[in-house]
């Protein structure tokens, strides 16, 4: 468990650094994140911001088998609750094995998203269903 806590701390520090750098460059990072293990279907989305205004909320997500091959895609819905139109929203998935080693990633993105809009996303990956134990989702934005 200490390994998992250390990874969360590193991810938190990295996210804070990204947010600070984004603020310096004139863009805004109102990130939200969620995680799930490979056995769950995403019913509990793990949103850190829990639907508070001022963020892009991950409403739901689940890992689904790709139509072709042995890879897994992540499908879900997000909502822009930032209070303004976002010129760019990115949803990223990071996949980890049982030892906490990152084994893959993927992303989907959207342009010109009005405040309050709900969007469906699909993150297409090459990560095999037996290659990962859990995944984490993150969102980032630009005005």
Poorly predicted spans: 1-31, 38-52
Widest sheet, order of strands: 1-7-4-5
Strand elements, count: 7
What is the SS-derived class? alpha+beta
The sequence of SSEs as H and E is HEEEEEEE
Oligomerization state: single chain
Q: How many domain units?
A: 1
Continuous helix count = 1
Integer-rounded radius of gyration: 15 Å
CATH C-level class: Mainly Beta
CATH architecture: Sandwich
What's the overall geometry?
A: elongated
The largest sheet is:
4 strands, antiparallel
What CATH calls the topology is Immunoglobulin-like
Helix content: 10-25%
What is the distance, rounded to the nearest whole angstrom, between the alpha carbons of the first and last residues? 37 Å
Mean pLDDT: 76
Note the beta-strand portion: 35-45%
What does this protein structure show overall?
The protein is an alpha+beta fold and 143 residues long. It has a single domain, classed as Immunoglobulin-like (Sandwich), CATH 2.60.40. Strand 4 and strand 5 form a beta hairpin. The longest helix has 23 residues. It is elongated and about 40 Å long.
Report a brief summary of the structure:
The chain has one helix and seven strands; from the N terminus they run αβββββββ.
Write the layout of secondary structure elements.
Layout: H1 2-24, E1 33-37, E2 55-65, E3 72-81, E4 86-96, E5 102-113, E6 118-123, E7 134-142
Antiparallel strand pairs: 1-7, 2-3, 3-6, 4-5, 4-7
């Amino acid at each position: 468990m200490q390994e998992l806590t250390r990874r969360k701390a590193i991810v938190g520090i990295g996210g804070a650094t990204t947010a600070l750098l984004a603020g310096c460059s004139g863009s805004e990072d109102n990130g939200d994140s969620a995680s799930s293990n490979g056995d769950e279907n995403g019913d509990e989305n793990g949103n850190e911001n829990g639907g508070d205004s001022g963020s892009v909320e991950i409403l739901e997500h689940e890992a689904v088998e790709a139509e072709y091959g042995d890879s897994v895609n992540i499908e879900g819905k997000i909502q822009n609750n930032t209070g303004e139109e976002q010129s760019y929203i990115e949803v990223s998935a990071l996949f980890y094995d049982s030892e906490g080693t990152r084994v893959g990633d993927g992303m989907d993105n959207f342009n010109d998203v009005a405040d309050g809009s709900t969007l469906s996303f699909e993150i297409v990956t090459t990560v095999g269903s037996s290659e990962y134990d859990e995944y984490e989702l993150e969102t980032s934005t630009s005005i």
